[in-house]
Amino acid sequence: MSKKDKKKREKYIREKQRKRRLLRKVAFFCAAVFCFAALPFIILSSAYRTAEDRTASAGVSVETQPLQFGTYPQSAVEDREILAALGNLPLDWTYYDDCHTGAGFYGTMEQTNCMKYADTELDGNRYRAVMIEQYRPDSVLSPAVEEESRQDDNGFLLNEICWFRFEPIRWIVLDENTGLVMSESVLDAMPFNDSYYWVDRDFDKAPFVDRELSATKNLFTPANLYKTSSVRKWLNNRFYDEAFTKEEKRALRRAGHLAHESAERKKYGLLSLSYDRIFLPSFRDIANYSGPDKEAATRLVPVTDYARCRGAYTFLHEGEYYTWYWLSSPGDGCADVLSVSAQIQIINSDRQFYYAHSLGGIRCAAFFKPDAFDRPVSE
Fold it and tell me: Whole-prediction pTM value?
């Protein structure tokens, strides 16, 4: 090989080595960029597997099957033999303290003994008898007559004893990390606020509703403020005591829950931050939920026979009864509360407004402690 050819050969080798080194640098750079871009997905995947493993170890399937926790009267008893046996038992009747009637205008609502109930046991099962002596009106401002009630529309008539079976409450998981859950069905019917006075949509003209808060802060309290609502008190007293045993109560976590508030509420210092074990879900709870069982949170919501007897609005669809339910979030005016509408197409983003004094469905939410998820799931 001549000297000239040798130099060409060496130059070719050096150029090839330079290109090889350049390709290595480019490949290394691309690999680094890929790893950096993929890091969030790796972390999310790891977090998902961790949550999945944690859920599986806690006895909850990844598909977030409904959990059983607590009991409440739900299905109507139809078995004739059981009805005959229940009819022979002595009953200790108690009037409901959550029935209100009015003269048709604001400020006239008052508590009335329109319904009574009696709890008993038969063969190890709990049952509740309910008798309607006066129809429970659809509004605390209306008289207790048939035309103002949903109870007769639902097939429950005056002076008839109706029996309901206490059954496990089924819950769906909204957030596995915080333990936020929501009942699968609408369990009862309650007004959002039974202390209802004249309220104008003009915020500055709204009168006092909660006198204690108004006196201490020199402010009015809107009727749709969840923090001072009668439904919140009912959930954390009567419902809480009837639905859960002492052991079950220890598995519920008391945590702060903020209903979505408007800028107008913040200006007056009326944020609806509550620290409860049982509460109404907020608009944000429903809108932000994106778990594997999202359909169960936003689809048509079934209503129990007991809630129908109590006066919940219901409609029949493909052989099943459904209804709308309250959210803890306020609407535009001082009398408006958000709800999830009972339509064939569920509407939870259009913010349908219902007056705070109306009788609405109760679909409750809670924060479960980890040990609450250890309970078995039944079909």
Answer: 0.74
